[in-house]
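(Protein data)
===
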Amino acid sequence: MALMDDAGLKALTKKTSQKLFSSLKGGSGFETWKRFDKGLARELSLFFTGVLYSREVISQKQRELCAVGALTALHRPNEVRAHIHAALNVGATRQEVAEVIFQMVTYGGMPVVVDALEVLAERGEPFPGEEPAR
């Protein structure tokens, strides 16, 4: 990624955040960070969303599926919720997200898999067996 000016980084951060987290009620945590330290929250947001999540080495879909897997195995339900939304927002299917979650049974155990699947179910999209025939 080429160096960009502050205005460009702010615009990219906003665009990426909207793409990833617009469907998430309550946002991705930024408002909580901001209540504790507005300046640090801004810097973290610019780095995570404007720099790290905007890299083009892998696709947004691949990046979000990696995040879902890691956060499932680490049992981080609030964060996995945000990244399940993000994965679906950037083109991952419900079945792909569920498969990544199921793969984490080896690393985190069945309880973390069940919790992450519940988060996926909250999104309200049909399960594979419930999808309309094409």
User: Anything to note?
Assistant: The mean pLDDT is 85. The CA atoms of residues 61 and 90 lie 6 Å apart.
